Amino acid sequence: MHAHTGHRPTTGLKGLLVAATALGILAVSAGSAPAADPPAAGGDALMGRARELFKPLPATLPVVRNNAVTREKIELGKMLFFDPRLSASGIFSCNSCHNLGLGGVDGLETSVGHGWQKGPRNAPTVLNAVLNVAQFWDGRAEDLKAQAKGPIQAGVEMNSTPDRVMAVLNSIPAYQAKFADAFPNEKNPVSFDNVAMAIEAFEATLTTPAAPFDQYLEGKADALTDTQKAGLELFIDKGCSGCHNGVNVGGHDYFPFGVVTKPGAEILPPGDKGRFAVTKTADDEYVFRAPTLRNVALTAPYFHSGKVWDLRQAVAVMGSSQLGATLSDQEIDKITAFLTALTGQQPRVDYPLMPASTPATPQPVFK
Amino acid sequence: MHAHTGHRPTTGLKGLLVAATALGILAVSAGSAPAADPPAAGGDALMGRARELFKPLPATLPVVRNNAVTREKIELGKMLFFDPRLSASGIFSCNSCHNLGLGGVDGLETSVGHGWQKGPRNAPTVLNAVLNVAQFWDGRAEDLKAQAKGPIQAGVEMNSTPDRVMAVLNSIPAYQAKFADAFPNEKNPVSFDNVAMAIEAFEATLTTPAAPFDQYLEGKADALTDTQKAGLELFIDKGCSGCHNGVNVGGHDYFPFGVVTKPGAEILPPGDKGRFAVTKTADDEYVFRAPTLRNVALTAPYFHSGKVWDLRQAVAVMGSSQLGATLSDQEIDKITAFLTALTGQQPRVDYPLMPASTPATPQPVFK
């Protein structure tokens, strides 16, 4: 299993503690200091405040709800994540839009898919997504196994069907064997559900521990620069942490885009009413899941619309729209500096060798 | 440097012997038996014949003409190979069409590029391409550094320009540093030429040694099955080895498609006259570089047109068009079995972490 090399333990599948809160999965590492501990020696008042609001990201792998993660599932899921044959055209893989070498995103305003169509929203990062309360900007998928089925079938993304995916996988004996290994007690291991389960298992490994901010939360006072500490203080005092908190510094609940003032239509397109499409509740108009801010320095452009390319500008927009605050350039600089301290160790992935197609494999379709 | 893990020495950059023949680069490993040696103990008459025609692929890295390969160049080249920001849209990387998890190809008839346009010819494998006499089906690029510049600029592929690529790379300080490391004695290390040099250096690592056939050539008589040996004998006796020989089992010279009988227009589209477009010589009409057959079992669909999806059918077409022979089903089975013995150790690549864009990075362009 090569999903990770070198940087962190992959034997941590055992012995994990999991606190499943009302807001979703919240994984707590078995080894490091829980957030409830008093600040360690060398801590300060700011560290104490931060530890009430945030939790360090565990170095161990999170446990996934209703999906026992095994090495075999991770290995299969990694192949599937990178395999463009899950798309009808044979061009797009999960990694196309959630590029593991680019912070788990594609760096596009909105992704481009089948037939050069543009998708409706910016692709969220897959990194640490397992720790979000739900998936997609509007939370319409309760977890990653539900999410994984969406883009495969979406006409503007991979444009495939469960039947086609099954035909592809069943045409490749080596894939059949991998599914049998990953789902050993199942009569029909090659199934669309299991495609999603394996992808979820792999994606659960894509966490980014040991960011400077994690080290700070764990008691290392000098893990943040003075500017970053000033930014953290502003992040708390101005109210950013009202939505962006917890282990994922966001990702755990839904909020209106424009709590105080709606941003302009160029940033908040009126046609996309967010979670309203899921709940059909008027209160959910223009409501979106607050994104995780982990690795946010890597994941431009920003917002569900992908319209803002500069993290400093994104901070300014959030200040005015969510907090009713016109942040000064210095404040923006400090908050942005703090946000860069949320960049963690990126997953190191050994690029998978995918089994070859056979003459029975359905050919790519471009129409 | 993580370009390879585990399977083979990467310290072999030193001490290589290189025999640059008139046909191009022909790398010979310093350690293993040169082809001129008598068959090893356990060899047979067939092995002796094979060793006159073919050479085992060295486990060591080949030396590249006019490009001293260093670890720094390989590391930079790997990033560039996987970076979709070399394309105008930010969607296509070298790996999109030369997927290292899929035998170095994309599994499409012809590649799809910018604006969902289809390219004119099937994407050849990047694996062992460094050992070809020249690049592209018509040999119009003399080496991989020349080849690499083509798809980046081709309107139907990545649709970028040298200026745009320079603007992207210069907007990313971490890339500037990588270029300075890789080209330490140059005043302007970030250049389009050096993009190509770095990609070539990485691609030179993408060889696939230790195929069963290589082991056989090195004296291990039981590395091939009896059926594969029968296929090898047919491959020689029927004349396949007339074009497909040497270290790359092809790739070193140009031949007409249809030496004896032109295949139908569905396989040999009349509009693509091959090398004629390069040399403007009537003799070069419908002439193409014989492709390497290494890893051919992984690289369907076949021929420059990509019209044949079944390796058995490709063997039959070659028999009739190139040799004037109607091969029996049994003969086709045997030759195909031999061809599967050309699948070598695939390169194991640690997926690169590419440096993040900045607000100065040119935004993707879709038109």
Automatic annotation (TrEMBL), chains A, B:
It comes from the Bacteria. SUPFAM superfamilies: Cytochrome c. Pfam families: CCP_MauG, Cytochrom_C. Residues 72-203, 226-343 form the Cytochrome c domain. It is found in: Periplasm. InterPro entries: Cyt_c-like_dom, Cyt_c-like_dom_sf, Cytochrome_c_Peroxidase/MauG, Di-haem_cyt_c_peroxidsae, MauG/Cytc_peroxidase. Keywords: Heme, Iron, Metal-binding, Oxidoreductase, Periplasm, Signal. Residues 1-35 form the signal peptide. Its main location: periplasm. This is C-type cytochrome. It comes from Azospirillum melinis.
